Amino acid sequence: MPVKIDPKKRPMPKQEPYERVRNFDEVALGYTPELAREEATRCLVCKNPRCVEGCPVGIDIPGFIQSIVEGDFGAGIRRIKEKNALPAVCGRVCPQEEQCEKVCVLGKKHEPVAIGRLERFLADYEAASGTIERPDVAQPNGRRVAIVGSGPAGITVANDLALQGYDVTIFEALHEAGGVLTYGIPEFRLPKAIVRREVEYVKGLGVKLHLDFIVGKTRTVDRLLEEFDAMFIGAGAGLPWFMEIPGENLNGVYSANEYLTRCNLMKGFRFPACDTPLKRASRMAVFGGGNVAMDAARTALRLGADEVHIVYRRGRDEMPARIEEIENAEEEGIIFELLTLPLRLLGNEHGWLTEIECQRMALGEPDGSGRPRPVPIEGSEFRMEADAAVCAIGNSPNPLIPMTTPRLNVGKKGNIEADPETGQTSRERVWAGGDVVTGAATVISAMGAGRKAARSIHETLGA
Amino acid sequence: MYRVVVRRMIVPNIHELTVAAPEVTNAARPGNFVILRPDEAGERVPLTIADWDAAAGTVTSVFLQVGASTSKLARLKPDDVIPTYAGPLGNDTEIAHFGTVLCIAGCYGIGSIYPVARSLQEAGNTVYVLIEARSRYLLYWQDKLRGVCTRVIEITRDGSAGYKGHITRLPEILILEKIKPDRIIVNGCTFLMMKASEVTRPLGIKTIVNMNPIMIDGTGMCGVCRLTVGGKMKFACVDGPDFDGHEVDWVEFLKRRQTYNPEEVQPLRRSGCASHY
Questions:
Q1: Are residues B42 and A275, on separate chains, in Cβ contact within 8 Å?
Q2: Which domain holds residue A115?
Q3: How far apart are CA A433 and CA A162, in angstroms?
Q4: Alpha-carbon gap, residue A205 to A45, rounded angstroms
Q5: C-alpha angle A342/A252/A278, rounded to 5°?
Q6: Domain CATH for A426
Q7: Nearest CA-CA distance, residue A229 and chain B, Å
Q8: What is the DSSP letter of A140?
Q9: What's the whole-model pTM score?
Q10: Which CATH number covers residue A39?
Q11: What number is the ipTM of this complex?
Q12: Same-domain pairing of A248 and A232
């Protein structure tokens, strides 16, 4: 007799909203083994699993889910690590609803299997057990690879090549490894202890890590290529975009990069125990509708803001953030000013932001991105009070390497041009991937690019 | 970790900090800066490079003790180690054969102008250095500067050394000293750079300033160092820090510099004593 399938995912245990807005601890608490096994039994174990195709790094998803059903969690995590060096991170920050879970067959009638939560469960279960298994590392092959940036792309390349016996060195410009996982994504969504654990795991494979080393400045790409057989550039996000409206240089106006870096990398939420200040806003507006906007808004709330508004020019359905993060933000009391466009920022005589002039929008015909184009409604201008604003509308790739590397081709937006299949750039022995190639995107797509580049480096060096 | 080689107060509240950082030494050029952290809880502090010694692998900066972070730096001793010393960052100051160049410096800038003057002289320019302070006891490195220029000119607010007054006397000083600069380069506090730019504009002399905004990463990521130059948004860490002083929006820049003034001194007011929080 066929077993009846529960149409709903097992809900994720979370901190209560009234509690969590007062701390920086992780919001989602993770599945218990019981919840994980219950959820895992919802998987239909398709013969041609579409979820695997939906995963940018091709994890054997039904395989690890069956290990959970059987209660063999060790086998499950080994299955994931064949393809993914950062399972605890991806389980938390991947937009699963756009990838593996989007194509889950169960999702046609019911909610798809909670693949991301199960991935996170296995990674956390292994970490809690205290013994992290490391796969066998191949004999050293004598080839040296330099990696620029210790974010998701760089860590993936380092992992893949170290396992194949390469001598890998990561160069990181900041004083902590992890890239956007460290400076960008807040503690309450991705605890930094997890990022450090994943970085330590890769170091355990023999990967060397140089902090405070700005490739392009401290040493140029060309000088490093004298010592290394190949290089992967995963330098990540660069200059933040602003809206190019009046008043953006008023005090109290931040880029999301600045606001989040002050909090996450510099621990500004502990000021004055930590020296980097982060002001408590009373009314903050966050411009944008992506994960970064949600992160900035929820950070401001935890820092004691009275009111935080997300100002987004399209509707809720068009917001690029993960659904789970939008729901979390709503539960916590973030106010959504949808279909609203900021026109200009107004300040006082001391140069501090006081008000934002906005205009309401309506949705029109689809634009180039396939989403409905927001159209201004005449005469709908209004002003909102604010003493802080965060611009979370994206960023261009980091300019330091293109500026200092001759014959490295860059696109119109300053992105390094790389073959989408291999990551090969216009320079021999130089590969690139992640945000420095695509502009701001996701952790998992950067990892996918890293995986392809590692494969191509291995094929080219022919070790 | 990076070892402190020298940390000494040169004149009241102005300190020299020399750190062993061979990788930075190899790439350092005039006008560059480094980012350092005094300790694990510390801010990322940008300091302009004032000198370097390739053989010893050391880099020297001069800084003004003003807030919590620079007070931490001012307490460092030789052989202490600091967790972060990254660089060099920023574009190089343009060095070419301009003819006659006047370097103007005050405060920490008297230190950072030194490698600029040295490189300009090596490039065949006639270099004058004008140093400015409130009083004679705040001037330093005169002998060192004399070694890399034709003449060192002093100006003090109280007249205790050289000309009496402020940089606004520059047009008159140029006549008295018979200097016709083809280019002026200013390093130091924002007020000095702004005032110098104001008085050189009517003279039509190209004036380059080395901007010193608040920074965090210093690598072109956070955007806090943005300023308006020629009506356009620029980022000091990757577009500068040198800009044309006649194009900078000084009023906006001064306001942005003051964003964290209360927080800069807040930790200094805490003694840790229960009766005096």
A1: yes
A2: 17-129
A3: 18
A4: 33
A5: 130
A6: 3.50.50.60
A7: 21
A8: P
A9: 0.91
A10: 1.10.1060.10
A11: 0.91
A12: no
